[in-house]
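Hey Z.,

So I finally got round to the guanosine-5'-diphosphate thing we talked about over coffee. Here's the setup:
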Amino acid sequence: MRVVALAGGTGAAKLLRGLAASLDPSALSIVVNTGDDAEVWGLHVSPDLDSVMYALAGVLDAGRGWGRADETFRCLSAMAAYGAPTWFGLGDRDLATHLVRTHALRAGQSLSAVTADLARALGVAPRLLPMSDEAVRTTIRTPDGRLGFQEYFVRDKCQVDVLGVDYDGAAGARPAPGVLEAIRDAHLVVVCPSNPVTSVGPILAVPGVADALTATRATVVGVSPIVGGAAVSGPAGALLRARGLPVSPIGVARAYAPWLRVLLVAREDAACAPELAAFGVTAVATDVMMPDRERETALARVVLEQA
Ligand code: GDP
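And the result:
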């Protein structure tokens, strides 16, 4: 069975680890958000690609949910001594990824090509596809002006009012090679529990992706990142509200209309099933929290059962 997942960072990484453990990992393709890519110290950082890659390679830091395990931050302290900005805390091992990626991009390689090389070197079997090889940058509109996603998320810790979200460059971007074909040829498309506005939203803003999701014969199944009226973590609640969407599985389903077919929701949210049905979405109430590997795999199995 060929499976395609649309993914952001931390929430997606957990479900993807479960999926990779539950099926032939070479049958899994993952389309990853690059809207929150950023330039740090002159290096091209792809936070979501790296979280997913590190998780699947078994080297993701479990406590932080991003970056590499067994990390040190000696370069960061040395940069602080030079007065360089240090709010984006790059670790020493993690730096190697950004150095290789930046070098390859400057030498003219595409982001998809260097992503495939990095993933192969770390022993990652599923196919990792950036949503686009071209720059799409998620920008947050606030009362004081526009912020890059990492300025909003990491530097300002989401403590600003959000008026709106833009995906700069999306209208002119093309899906990376293989993205549309993977969606077209899949038996199952999984929308990971990721931020609908700033992780999945940028993927959907790349021309052709939403049409491919509408046209595919695959079952499209999502996992709600919203449980009991709030995001499990991060700013998904505030961002759904800024979009005028309810902070509930209904808001998630509306963000993924008209192509979402099944939404896995927490048992406490089971009452939203009739309203979801009105959108053509079947609700499946289950345990959607993934605090450990066992529950990652258990949730992945429920996802795969929807095919
Ligand atoms: P990030 O925001 O860049 O960290 O990356 P994501 O787009 O993956 O955002 C994390 C999303 O995953 C948030 O909206 C969380 O609510 C959601 N999330 C995190 N952990 C879990 C979990 O165990 N279960 C579910 N259902 N959602 C989760």
